[in-house]
Amino acid sequence: MNVELALEVKRHILEHPETADMSRWQCGTTACIAGWTVLLGYALPGESLDDACDRHYNETARIGGYAEIACRLLDIPDDESDFLFYSADWDEDLANLYDSAPTPEIPHPKAAAMALRINRLIAKHAN
Questions:
Q1: Distance of CA 37 to CAs 6, 67, 88, 101, Å?
Q2: Cα distances (angstroms) measured from residue 90 to each of 13, 44, 104
Q3: CA 77 from centroid of its chain's CA atoms
Q4: What is the distance between the alpha carbons of residues 25 and 22, in angstroms, rounded to a whole number?
Q5: What is the C-alpha to C-alpha distance for residues 56 and 53, in angstroms, rounded to an integer?
Q6: Which residue, 116, 106, 104, is CA-closest to 22?
């Protein structure tokens, strides 16, 4: 597993919690874990997520959506994409945190849940 890239994505999400949104691959300034993985691990400076995916296809002749490309970049099996990239498939505690309202203790619950999801992926692959 590419732990370095996973930690870079986590760091970006925590440093810029307003950019964290699991309901969007990328919408200008927000993205999900898969979107940030592709943007931080593959996209050229200033390149959009769609353009990066198109370039990936042109370079590799492999068709793949954001989740498939992110799995390759993270060096995890494609069948783990639901486990990481789709919040509806997350453990209940993370899904509840993601959907919770901001509080003084957790001002950015979406970013906090996404970071914890990445932590669990790293722990899973450490064993």
A1: 7, 9, 19, 25
A2: 17, 30, 24
A3: 15
A4: 7
A5: 5
A6: 116
The tens-digit pLDDT sequence of the chain (127 residues) is 999 999 999 999 999 998 888 876 555 556 788 888 888 888 888 887 778 777 877 777 665 677 888 898 999 998 888 778 888 888 999 999 999 999 999 999 999 999 999 999 999 988 7
From first CA to last CA, the distance across the chain in angstroms is 11
**Structure tokens of 27?**
């919408």
Evaluate whether 85 touches 76 at the Cβ level (below 8 Å).
Answer: no
Residue 70 is encoded by which pair of tokens? Answer: 């992110």
Residue 13 φ/ψ, nearest 5 degrees: -60, -45
